[in-house]
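Input structure tokens:
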């Protein structure tokens, strides 16, 4: 029995790919309603420009970040509402602050989502704020990173529409508060905010994602008439471009496209005397989770 395709699914796929309505509907039907699979189908057909997984922002609100006073815990949260007007009110701003405070108070081994569980003090506060503002409000997602010997950094862009939390390791003792490191961490956070990498390292990319990319590139070359070995080289080249877009260290710097993030880290490592790396980061953009 064929899966019924809804208008909302078609709209969602159009927003993600820019493809036409009928093309989106046909791809969704072929994928039995699976949005991600439909994106891949459209890409193979050359209809979709790229797999824009996050889609368009559909909500208002703010992203908030905070690092504990001892520098050992960093948290990030996306809090959504219906209008930018409410996002700027004192009541909403207080809720945002209270969310990050509650996240920092959660035990390091506990699920940070527990702070917004039904019946929790924060959940009750959200309900009260909804009543007062007259708009629906949700805490769409939360995240946490432990320093674990590294240094944490945060950055908010566009007044809180994009937030970044990251961890930098390999910092020599005594250099944690240095001006050089502070500048580097800010530059890295701004890089993540602007360039939106998906992975901290190549090793973090799931094997099925790499295989999917390869299958897309091969499908694009299917009727090219090129020899198999030539197609293999083209696929590897396209995969390298994928890494350059998706993996933080391999991205070109937003300051100087001729310099990669890896080269930035290497230069800072020589200055500070360590081997700096960014093993993990979180990037939230208002509306992406909806």
């Amino acid at each position: 029995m064929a899966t019924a395709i809804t208008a909302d699914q078609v709209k969602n796929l159009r927003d993600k790919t820019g493809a036409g309505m009928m093309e989106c509907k046909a791809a969704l039907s072929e994928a039995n309603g699976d949005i991600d699979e439909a994106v891949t189908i459209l890409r193979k057909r050359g209809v979709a420009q790229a797999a824009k997984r996050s889609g368009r922002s559909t909500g208002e609100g703010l992203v908030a970040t905070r690092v504990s006073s001892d520098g050992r815990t960093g948290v990030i949260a996306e809090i959504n509402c219906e209008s930018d007007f409410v996002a700027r009110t004192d009541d909403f701003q207080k809720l945002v602050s209270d969310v990050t405070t509650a996240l920092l108070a959660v035990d390091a081994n506990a699920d940070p989502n527990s702070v917004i569980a039904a019946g929790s003090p924060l959940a009750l506060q959200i309900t009260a704020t909804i009543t007062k503002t007259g708009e629906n409000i949700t805490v769409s997602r939360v995240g946490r990173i432990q320093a674990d010997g590294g240094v944490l950094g945060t950055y908010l862009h566009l007044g809180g529409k994009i937030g970044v939390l990251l961890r930098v390791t390999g910092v020599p003792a005594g250099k944690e508060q240095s001006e050089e490191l502070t500048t580097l961490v800010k530059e890295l956070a701004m890089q993540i905010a602007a360039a939106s990498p998906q992975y901290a390292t190549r090793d973090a990319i799931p094997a099925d994602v790499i295989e999917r990319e390869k299958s897309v590139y091969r499908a694009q070359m299917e009727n090219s008439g090129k020899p198999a070995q030539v197609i293999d080289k083209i696929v590897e080249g396209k995969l390298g471009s994928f890494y350059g877009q998706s993996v933080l260290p391999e991205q070109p710097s937003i300051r100087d496209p001729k310099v990669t993030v890896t080269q930035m880290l290497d230069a800072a490592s020589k200055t500070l005397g360590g081997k700096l790396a960014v093993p993990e980061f979180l990037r939230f953009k208002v509306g992406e989770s909806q």
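The chain is about 45% helix and 15% strand. Residues 228-246 form the longest helix (19 residues).
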